[in-house]
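[READ THE FOLD]
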Amino acid sequence: MRVIPIPAHAGITGFESPAAEYSQLGISLDDLLVEHPSSTFIGIAQGESMQDVGIFDRDMIIVDRHETARNGDVIVANFNGEFVCKILDTKRRILLSSNLQYQPVIIHEYDDFSIEGVVTRSIRCHRQSPLLCAK
C-alpha cells in the first residue's frame, strides 16, 4: 500500500501535489486493522449512543472475539437478545453509553448477557460504499 503524506491543518489554502512524494507501506489494511482474523468480525454501528468515543451511526466497527474484555473497553454484547455496543464497567456491572443523553444500563443477574467481542477499531466512510449499501 502506498502512503501519501498529506499534512492537513485547519484553514488549508492548498498543498503541493500528493504524488510528489510517497512512501511504501509494507502491510495491508487487513494487517493494520485486524489482529486475529479467525476471531474478528465487522459490524455496522447504529444510533448516537457512542459518538463521544468517535463511533457514529453507520460507522464500521471491528470486533475481536479473541480479546478479553476489560473495564472501560468498548464492547459488543448480546443483552437480552439485542446486540449493543457499549462501554463495559465491570466494577459496577453496567453498560455505559458515551453520549450523556443515554442512561447507564445495569446488568442484573436475571439478564441474558454475553460479551460478543471487544471493539478494537472503528472506520468511518465519508462516501457511502457500494459494498455496504442494502441491496
